## 1
Amino acid sequence: MELEPRSQQVSQETLSLTVTDRASHSRASETLKTVKALLLEISRVFSPIIEKAHAAHKEAIAQRTRLEAPLRQAETVLKGRVVAFLDQEAALRRVEEARLMAAQAQAEESRRVAEAAALEQAGLHVEAEAVLTAPPPPPVPVTLAPPQADGVSTREVWRAEVRDLAALVRAVAEGKVPAAAVEPCLPFLNGQARALKGLMAYPGVQAVKETVVAVKP
């Protein structure tokens, strides 16, 4: 009998069983052995096929990685050089923007002085004083454009680095930082639960016992 019809038949028979007494428990146990044996048979049939496909997949990935590796390394190096150049250009732009705004302020101050001098010369002393004491208009922001290249762009990417885990945990406990900022280490906690069992007494953690049925074919 082929595997698929047998798999369907055994699964239907298994689902039809109920366990209510010792006799039905015995039948269920025998059926579980049948299920286990069929699962092993399916595994024996398909494992070589899966292993062969997996090996081909791994080889294809390895070949792709070998071809990509020098290109990705070169890309990373050149991107670093581009970022370094752009950072240098940004620093120079900030200096130039500050110089232009200072020149703008100086030109405005020269205009005010010249206007006040003209008023003084015309005998308008009060008006001249008003020009000199009035707050200057705010400078027009100066923003120089960064270098551009078709098809290549930059963007800011922010990431977090945990420098003091204990401080972060304290902040979460005090409600200063959302609880989502930390994630329980389940492999560690599960290991502690297996070792300590019911004696595990970590605040906020409970050791949960589950009964697992094991079947030998």
## 2
Amino acid sequence: MTATLQAQGYVVRDESYRVSVVDPARLLRRWAAAHDFSTANKFDEFQTFEQDLDRLLSRIKSLTVSYALTGLAGAWLVAPYVRPVTLDIYILDRDQTSEIARAVELRPVEKGGNVRLVSPYDSGVFYGLRAVDGVNVVSNVQLYVDLVNYPARGEEASTALLRLIEDEWSKALVS
């Protein structure tokens, strides 16, 4: 894998064989372009009749299972640019779907729900998990990757998020 990334100019090795990313934003954009949130994951769809996003998030933050918001809902908490109409919640254990649905007061639907419990393609989506206003949210990098090909204004939200990520990287290089 490293050899391929090196051949494509994404990383370099120094004389001690340490690997460095040449242009992190370019590599992130490449990863995101190849990722399709809608096909990479498994979804259980639900409907909530709660119209107040803050009340819904309050129910979600009381969950005692491993979860993390992603998509427009996660981005809304980190960099409010596009108000979410659908909440996507990664769950670590799909066997806890019913428990989560009861706790958040969700009703199962065949399709077209406004809350989706997402069984991730890889548990690595939880890497860098953090609490934002008491709600678990995936890392900014994961948010960006999930949003790039996301329907319903995902590209707009991902662009705003990429600016935030690049600012964080710039600050990290300075300090």
## 3
Amino acid sequence: MAAKYGDAFVTLKSAFNKVSKRLTVKADTPTQYTLVSKIPSPFPQHKGQPMWFASVRLGKAYVSFHLMPLYMNPVLVRSISPELKKRMQGKTCFNFKNDPEPVLLAELKRLTEEGFKQWGEMKWV
């Protein structure tokens, strides 16, 4: 049941605290929190639409933490610890069944802030 992962959802959502005010909240429900850019995407296929930056989603079997800057930044991906890498699904997603350990939460916060900084340098946020 998804309700048992609620604590992990709240904890993972806190990884966005430093950047959330500089982005647009697209969804803020008990099961999803999604942040997008305030400015339109520079990519032709998404012209005029905001860019999806990050999300936390409460599912049936785990909580997913998605961070889109990882998709575009191989240097940032190489900085992911082996412990966090074990939770990685695909290129931008990490799954948790419990509250993340403090060291992993700190790492997710670092990745989020560094990803936001990179997007700022590219004038995407």
